[in-house]
Structure formats: structure tokens, C-alpha cells
């Protein structure tokens, strides 16, 4: 006990991070980088460079680690370690698990990025110790994950937790999944960007284009959103408030259906804005509870591990699979 160390990799479409962590979630070494998506091989080489970097930072040889875990943005087969489809990386059928096993000679576990992040929050963060917890991750899309009896609940077909595609209005805007009116179509960062740009196109004044130009961003990132809110931008305030309203309805639905001890709101937006983002979501959600909760036993909070939810969660996945 205590001496075992695991590598966790948080593989994202825009950035990646590898950590070496012990069983208690202490980060012993880390390395991160922007994601090179020019080819699957380039991305894989970069993953290996981050793992080697984290090992060097921890002053450890690869032979001193027990296992590796990876959270990947897409559909991964936990049995074969093959990533069948990861649109944000441009990947189809990439055998990342076997490639890393060959290279490092330890077991490699591959999981979905959001589910892995929730595993991290459950092991060490905002949902620590909870038997029933739900994660709602707001980013390019909206991902989700369920903890039941202290374990990740994958569902009968491994398809559980698609909280972002709960329908709030079947005649609503088109979602990334091709259907209409899913929560993701209202409240993902992508949807908020669409709504900000629609208002600007309709002639509303906003500081968002200037902030994006100044920061050389082609997308409305969470840091751009934070800056615009700090500048009291009316368009941004309106759009974020609408997204919070929908996320509140979503969280209320989740509580009525699943009755968790805690809902963790994560992803870049929640991380950057913290309680400013989660407070109004909580308020709306609580107004929808069928069973009153005067003692506030149902907690609705932002993720507690900052940038590390995914990488530490991947180290937990590695340990469970070792
Ligand atoms: Zn959808």
C-alpha cells in the first residue's frame, strides 16, 4: 500500500495531460500539451511524450508504474482498448490501448473522458465518498456519467449517462447528435457561442469579437466567456443565464429521476466560472425538486479537482484495471 503508482492520461481534442499519481490521488509528476491532431500517429507520439514527461517529472522509470489509464473523447471499447470513434480527434478504430501496452509493458485501460473525470471527482474530488452521484460536463458538448453504489454505472449496454441528450423541447434547436432540443443544443459551450453570434449578427453590441481577436481565438473559449462576463457584456450575460436555466431544468430532472447525493458540474466553463456558473443552476434545479429538500442534502457543486479531474480519474481507471 502507498507505494503503487499509476499513470493517468486526459486526452482532449484541444489539449492533453498525463500525470503520475499514487493511490491517494497525489500528483507526483505531470506533463501537458496542446493536442496535435494532424494525424493519429502524431497524436499518439504526443501522448507517449506526455507520459514520458510525467514520469521524468516524477523521477520514475516506466518499470515503476503499475498501470496506465486513458480518458478519451469518444467511444472506447474497454475490453479491446480500441477507440472506435473520436470525432474531436478525427480518429476511427485506433488501437490506443494495445499500442501503449506494447510500449510500456503494463495493463492499459481506456475509458470515455467524461466518465473518467467523474471517476476522478468521485475518488478524490467533489463527489468523494458519495454512493450516488451524477456528473454533468459542459464543454463542446454536454457529457454525463453516473455513480451507483460507489461505482461507475455504465448501463445494460454500456450506453448510460448521456445526460446531454435528454430532450428539453423536441422542437428546439438542432443538436450535435442530429436530433432537436437536447440539453446540449441549448447549453453546451458550442450552443452558447452560436447564441452569442446570432445576437451579434442581429446587431447587438458585444465585446466578444474583440476579446476573441485580442486573444487570437477562433472559438468562444471559456476564458473568453469569463472575460466578457467580467466586462459586464449584456449579450454574454443573457446567453449564459439562458444556458444556466436549461442546465438547472436538466439537473432538476436528474434529481427527480435518480435522487443522487451530489451532482458535480464540470468542464471548462464550470471550472473557469465556478460558483458564478453553478449557483443559478442549483437554484433552478431546486425549484423543480418533487421531494422537498429543506436540509439541502442534494448538493449541486462544481468539480473540485480543477484541471486534474480527467487525468486523476484516468489513474483511478488504471488502478481498477491493474
Ligand atoms: Zn442530442
Descriptive report:
Strands 3-2-1-4-8 form a five-stranded mixed beta sheet. It has a five-stranded mixed beta sheet with strand order 11-10-9-12-13, sandwiched between helices. The protein has a three-stranded antiparallel beta sheet with strand order 5-6-7, with no helix packed on it. Helix 3 (113-124) packs across helix 11 and helix 5 (189-201) runs antiparallel to helix 8. The model has no long low-confidence stretch (mean pLDDT 95). The chain has helices at 40-57, 96-104, 113-124, 184-187, 189-201, 208-214, 222-230, 234-258, 268-273, 275-287, 309-321, and strands at residues 5-11, 15-22, 27-34, 67-72, 75-76, 83-86, 91-94, 108-112, 133-138, 142-148, 151-153, 262-266, 299-302. The two termini are 14 Å apart. It is built from eleven helices and 13 strands. The chain is globular, with a radius of gyration of 20 Å. It is of the alpha/beta class and 322 residues long. The protein folds into two domains: 5-119 and 308-321, ATPase, nucleotide binding domain (Nucleotidyltransferase, domain 5); 128-304, ATPase, nucleotide binding domain (Nucleotidyltransferase, domain 5), CATH 3.30.420.40. The protein is 40% helix and 21% strand. Residues 165, 175, 177, 179, 182, 184 line the site of zinc ion.
